[in-house]
Design goal:
Length: 256
């Protein structure tokens, strides 16, 4: 029996074999391309993180760290939400240590707490209670956010930023608590609301200034700290006198 394939069948078999070989070569090329793309993406993400730090010099990084620390003492949730939102929509390139703030879950939780704080901070009495309960959160959070600006790239600068951020957060927290306690001695609510709105505008303003104009931010921060220290002294004396008068009234009533 003649098993020799006709010329047409042999030609078709040759074409099929060539096609199979071409498909195999194409699959191999696609695999190599995919591996190359994956490596490129990994390198690109690392380069983006590196450029985020290299594009910002040390004074600007310190300005951002100081702004995060100081603002955390006033509006911690606003700081987390606004910073994460700015990075998420591409307004700024966050340092690698702050990229976590862009996570939708972090943004959602911070946005919810920001919404609650916005109203709680404008109710006399409740604002002081809110400040007291958050005093244990704002200061370490301010230190952590400031240190995260430098991340693990510079342990020395990260430590400096943490100390600076924690100190500024504590100063802002103390000034806010003392000022609001003094304002709450007045029965009218308008001064309380006005002071709260001032903080609502000051936080995003100072954060923006630290990114856009670092040197101007340091000048504004210096003026703010001087005013803060003056307010601390004035309102602390006022509160001491107010407490003394109240004790005198109750003491006089008891003696009578």
């Amino acid at each position: 029996m003649d098993l020799t394939l006709p010329a047409s069948a042999a030609s078709a078999a040759a074409v099929a074999a060539g096609a199979a070989s071409a498909v195999a070569d194409a699959a191999s090329a696609v695999g190599a391309l995919a591996q190359s793309v994956g490596q490129s993406v990994g390198l690109a993400s690392g380069e983006v993180a590196t450029r985020a730090l290299s594009a910002m010099d040390t004074p600007q990084l310190l300005a951002v760290a100081a702004a995060l620390g100081w603002a955390s003492g006033l509006r911690l949730y606003a700081v987390v939400f606004l910073t994460g939102l700015a990075g998420w929509i591409g307004w700024v390139q966050l340092p690698p240590g702050l990229v976590l703030l862009e996570n939708p879950l972090v943004l959602g939780a911070a946005g919810l707490m920001l919404f609650i704080e916005f109203f709680a901070d404008k109710i006399p009495g409740l604002d002081s209670l809110w400040d007291a309960t958050h005093s244990v959160v704002r200061i370490p959070a301010g230190a952590a956010l400031a240190a995260a600006v430098f991340g693990g790239d510079s342990a020395t600068w990260a430590m400096v930023a943490a100390l600076m951020g924690g100190t500024l957060a504590a100063t802002a927290q103390a000034a806010k608590s003392t000022t609001r306690a003094a304002i709450n001695t007045s029965p009218e609510p308008f001064s309380n609301i006005g002071a709260s709105l001032l903080g609502d505008f000051a936080v995003p303003g100072m954060l923006w200034l630290s990114w856009a104009h670092p040197m101007a931010f340091f000048i504004a921060l210096g003026i703010t700290l001087i005013v803060t220290l003056v307010l601390l002294v004035v309102f602390w004396r006022f509160l001491r006198g107010f407490v003394a008068r109240v004790r005198g009234l109750f003491g006089g009533g008891a003696a009578a």
